[in-house]
Please model this.
Amino acid sequence: MSLRPKRGIARLKTCAHGGIHQLKDTELKTLGIDPNNILDFSVSTNPFMPPPGTKEKMGTAAIEEYPDSQSNELRQRLSGRLGVAPENILVGSGTTELIRLVALTYFRQRDSVLLLEPTYGEYEVACQLTGARPLKHRARESDNFTPRIEEVVDIIRKRHPRGVFICNPNNPTGLYLSRREIETIMEVMEDSLLILDEAYVTFVEKRRDPFDLTERGNVVVLRSMTKDYGLPGLRLGYAVACREIIDSLRPVLPPWNVNVIAQKVGVDVLEKEEYLRQSLRQVREAKRFLTGELKRLGFKVLPSDAHYFLVKVGNAQQCHNALLAQGILVRDCTSFGLKEYIRIAPRTMPECQKLIAAMGRISK
Model:
């Protein structure tokens, strides 16, 4: 008899993600498409990053040495940028590593964990890894998939979940909950841990840093440098929380989890704030162009506070396939339970114009 994994692993769901590497080689070969020529609107990283000189900086990293397990230099730079003590920051290899880290540290077998759907699928995977049970609040299409805060509060009061994941702005909807809405939810979270995933918050114009909320002792804020600076190949994110939570998370984190190249690049890009601001202006201009043109073509575009947004196309899979045949990749949101929607994130203006032309051909 072959050795079997522990109970639950066989039932573990995998989470669908965007990106060219999610496509099957056979699919591309059938269409006669070179993956290097695909315009990828399915990922939501900053299309105008990384900043100039970043790739050259990678070549100066001391790859012959072990990385600093605590990413001390990067934490010091983040501390100065955020106004948070270095002891309250933990650096990870992307926010998804940190999501699983929090779950492994705090969730127990049969704990309930509240998810506000539709949302990022890795929250549920993290729950499954620990034996916790996802407790779901599903937003309605009639509300543009906006969570009903009073219902969320009621669920917490009645079910007392061990944890609550809030993606803010949410993926895939792009909706951003206000400070007041977050605090309303926190008021009933006596023994629950709030994981506030702000991976895309840099792309929200009217936002407020929630780091003071971590002083309450039951909040972890996650941020993604991968998204901000266009570094998906390096993987870089961080958590901000009270000292007690950080000290609990650190021993569970693998040593040397962030490689020397990612740490060096992270320090470098933090010095290029003006370039980031310029890129965000370009992103917003591209979003305005895309949403305006898609509406002109007759598509329903849902409101979004982030740069990415949902478009109702009738059959998401068919639309995805029709665009892919034209060398354009969008996110089919069927994996989020949204079979009629695709998600689009801006790219450069010439590339956005190509997408609109392709959508025009599909609409006919």
Q: What stands out?
A: The chain is about 35% helix and 15% strand. The mean pLDDT is 94. The radius of gyration is 21 Å.
